[in-house]
UniProtKB/TrEMBL annotation, chains A, B:
Residues 8-68 form the HTH tetR-type domain. It comes from the Bacteria. One of its GO terms (molecular function) is DNA-binding transcription factor activity. It holds the Pfam family TetR_C_6. PROSITE patterns: HTH_TETR_2. Keywords: DNA-binding, Repressor, Transcription, Transcription regulation. This is TetR family transcriptional regulator C-terminal domain-containing protein. Residues 31-50 bind DNA.
């Protein structure tokens, strides 16, 4: 068992080296050799854990996804009262925005991955995987809002979920480009939710 | 004067070689030498027109932006009746989505540029330039909608403009990843506009 743990730990350490490069200068043109250097190991050692750049990217992305889910869960359980569906949606989308170093890193790695997935069908498959789960989770909140009489029954939960995901994603872009301030992005999402939660 | 025209034509031909690479395999790792080869000229000849990859990227992006504006203008003037503010917004965001080869190319080049701008303050400056003009144009349409009694006077034109831009951008991502179908994306934008244009 310890050997397995070491293996996973080493893989995570390599993924973190990749994140540092993604944050500092982006992954455009960064090679496995660059990642190995950042992780303080040889290219051969790195290739023992990851046979290709894409394999490393998929692992780094899943690891980041897990950390992001963990962060959202902590945020929701940390609220004083049981959160309403509107609270859950607000806290989740806020946690998805690049408002601190960790979520900024997550978003930058996700973008690097997205750019590769555009030209690689296999990678696009992975990219699609995460969306239905998030969409179903958001749709559940809208459905709960309708059941509580807080959202108009004419709203379509699945469509509202996709709108909210797309909106959060678009605001992420403009936050990273510094076109939008964090306060503005949060205010825009709040006013979108305000209108959604109107019986 | 003919010399100047030749110069601009050559620059456009090089930009188009860059677009072809962006569409086929992305710009991640593509060098000036690759672009020169695609354009059928030597690296030295290319460097006569563009001294750096970023200079070429900025030119290619501005040229694409000009073509996109032209396309939107043609679409709006091609409508049978003078378009209402809601028509203008619908037609403009639809034209921005990657629904045909030309707008798909435009979006792919924009993303390649965006990824570089994340790590380059000077490039971020260029990226920011286009947004205020689009935002002001969208805000004007919302304002006109309020004046015509089609949009509630409580709506804030500038905020609605940014929401619509971010939403269109997010949907572009999910269209490119094939998470969303063109019909779905257009339907989601239509229902967003439907709600905005409710007195």
């Amino acid at each position: 068992m310890p050997k397995r743990v070491d293996h996973e730990e080493r893989r995570r350490a390599i993924a973190e080296a990749l994140w540092r490069i993604a944050c500092a200068r982006g992954l455009d043109g960064a090679s496995l050799r660059d990642v190995a250097a950042e992780a303080g190991i040889s290219l051969g050692q790195l290739q023992h854990y990851f046979s290709s750049r894409d394999e490393l990217l998929v692992f780094a992305l899943k690891h980041l996804g897990g950390l992001a889910e963990e962060r959202i869960r902590r945020r929701l359980t940390g609220l004083s009262a049981p959160p309403s569906p509107r609270d859950v949606l607000r806290e989740t989308v806020t946690e998805m925005l690049p408002l601190d170093e960790e979520s900024r890193t997550g978003n930058l790695v996700q973008i690097a991955y997205f750019v590769r997935a555009l030209h690689d069908e296999r990678l696009r498959g992975h990219a699609k995987e995460g969306v239905p789960a998030l969409r179903a989770f958001f749709a559940d909140q809208v459905r709960a809002g309708i059941a509580r009489g807080e959202v108009a029954a004419t709203r379509v939960p699945d469509a509202e979920a996709m709108l909210l995901i797309a909106l959060t994603d678009g605001l992420t872009t403009y936050l990273l480009l510094e076109v939008c301030t964090p306060e503005e992005a949060k205010g825009l999402l709040e006013s979108h939710l305000e209108r959604l939660f109107t019986p």
